[in-house]
Amino acid sequence: MKSFIDGMPKAELHVHLEGTLEPDLSFALARKNGVTLPYDSPEALLRAYDFDDLPSFLAVYYKAMAVLRGEEDFFELTWRYLQKARQQNIVYAEMFFDPQAHTARGVAFDAVIRGIRRAQEKAAAELGVETQLILCFLRDLSADSAMQTLHQALPYKHWLIGVGLDSDEKNNPPLKFAAVFAAARREGLKLTMHCDVNQANSREHIRQVLEDIRVDRIDHGVNCLEDLALCATIRERGLGLTVCPVSNRICVQDLTATQLRRMLELGLRATVNSDDPAYFRAYLNENLHALHEDGGLSMPEIVELVKNAFQVAWLDAPRRAGYLEQLQRHVDQAMPTAPAA
């Protein structure tokens, strides 16, 4: 089963580029940029990854970004993730980035996005990994700040596929950003928002993203299972849910394997993703391994989750069909009598 998972062609739809910042790269960039880290070694930094909920994770996460200063840093960050993606047979990824976390420190928006874009182009040419980019707004900052960031991004709109919303959900409902997301939609960008697991007002936030914002996808969204009417709306619209099991195991002490199985039973297009893999010590393959080994999900269930990611990816029909054919060939070789993927 492990080799079957590792060999599957996969799509990842919920990965924060800043969350792929490994300790060794943090130290290398700190030396290069003259940033002092409060740790003696990458191993000591790794030991500091001691969090058990979303706020404690975010406190570490944003401090670590101080080492990212220039275009080359963002290129290196993205390139290293995409090399890892290739090793894990991720053939397609839609990646988040948080420009406000950098522009607030005086880093130019242009430096951030150009570094990322260069790595995307290099990965497409040299690794065969196709990627698209999603700009995430920080929900614990103001809606005005988000709107300013959207305007900063518009000259680079052709490099973006959509916009998202992440960071601390407490007292920061989706409706706070309704005008920003309406403006992004008018610019032709796709919409997604984080509805983190077991946060205050989770069901109301999911209702808002469905009825008021009318997103094209939901990140996390596990708490929809508490309301069958929400599930019905998600199913009827064919919306994807980008679930991050190992992240959930650390932040809410639940791998959410049972919830993923229930989503599949209800006909919801649930997908599996790594979220912030450098911090949660699990990239996409490790998340799928955990679901099988610890969560008891079967091979057909794993296949369905991987298939869903291609189905809800923001791809045109021919590219989607091509990726699904790759997946089907892999399944046929391993499971000759299995139902079609």
CATH class: Alpha Beta
State the CATH superfamily name.
Metal-dependent hydrolases
Task: Based on the coordinates given, report the CATH architecture.
Answer: Alpha-Beta Barrel
- Which ranges are low-confidence, i.e. pLDDT below 50, for 5 or more consecutive residues? none
- What's the Cα radius of gyration? 19 Å
CATH names the topology as TIM Barrel
Structural class: alpha/beta
Largest sheet descriptor = 8 strands, parallel
Cα distance spanning the termini: 16 Å
Strand order of the largest sheet: 1-2-3-4-5-6-7-8
Number of helices: 17
Helical content class? 40-55%
Hey, roughly how much beta strand do the residues contain? 5-15%
Number of strands: 8
- Helix and strand string, N-terminal first? HEHHHHEHHEHEHEHEHEHHEHHHH
Shape: globular
Descriptors for this entry?
single chain; 341 residues; alpha/beta; TIM Barrel; eight-stranded parallel β-sheet; 14% strand; globular
Description:
By secondary structure, the protein is of the alpha/beta class. The protein has a single domain (2-334), classed as TIM Barrel. It is 52% helix and 14% strand. The protein contains 17 helices and eight strands. An eight-stranded parallel beta sheet has the order 1-2-3-4-5-6-7-8. β5 (190-195), α10 and β6 (217-220) form a beta-alpha-beta unit. α5 (71-87) packs parallel to α7, α8 (143-153) runs parallel beside α9 (178-186) and α16 runs antiparallel to α17. It is globular, with a radius of gyration of 19 Å. The model has no long low-confidence stretch (mean pLDDT 95).
